[in-house]
Design goal:
Oligomer: single chain
Strand content: 35-45%
Number of helices: 0
Helix content: under 10%
Number of strands: 15
Order of helices and strands: EEEEEEEEEEEEEEE
Radius of gyration: 16 Å
Length: 180
């Protein structure tokens, strides 16, 4: 899976279960850990340098900065099985928050939120965890960044929408018969 950061000097990054993440530009690097997916924080979000998250086979989500080489900004250990996907939401309008979702075989979808201006200060992220009935494989944010579509191990789709309080489990929005 390759996701390109908009308007960045980094050409692309990829992840595979062959234990190396790869940066394709003027340098290549391999940091040993099993990576299933990567996602970039949208460049226009206001971060000082490119930031991306990686999903690991070890149940961890790692946050990276490309300031002064590869710098770890955090390691989230919310999953007990392989993290299958990770995705930053689009930053739309006057939102000053970055939202990062991860999904795993352990049936959890974890969504984190933090002010973009504090992305690299070491402070805690607000977290919301939603349990599904089946393992979660892939994530896709709506263009407005307010809904998250999750596909399960059986190729079923679950649409999640933020509730009244961010830290509560997100609400599952039923798909109509014509959308299944």
């Amino acid at each position: 899976m390759i996701r390109r950061p908009p308007r960045s000097t980094l050409s692309s990054s990829s992840a595979a279960s062959d234990v190396y993440k790869r940066q394709v530009s003027t340098q290549s690097t391999g940091i040993p850990w099993d990576a299933m997916a990567v996602s970039f924080l949208p460049h226009f979000a206001g971060a000082k340098c490119p930031v991306f998250a990686s999903a690991g086979c070890d149940g961890h989500v790692r946050l990276w900065s490309l300031a002064d080489g590869w710098t770890s900004l955090g390691n989230f250990q919310d999953h007990s099985e392989w993290v299958r996907d990770v995705a930053f939401s689009p930053v739309v309008g006057d939102s000053s928050f970055a939202m990062l979702a991860s999904c795993a075989q352990d049936k959890k979808v974890v969504i984190r939120r933090k002010k973009v201006s504090a992305i690299d200060d070491g402070s805690a992220w607000e977290t919301s965890t939603t349990m599904l009935e089946k393992g979660a494989w892939r994530l896709s944010w709506s263009p407005c960044g307010r809904m998250l579509l999750v596909t399960t191990q059986d190729s079923e789709c679950v649409l999640l929408k933020e509730g009244a309080v961010f830290t509560d489990a997100w609400q599952s929005v039923p798909l109509g018969d014509d959308q299944k």
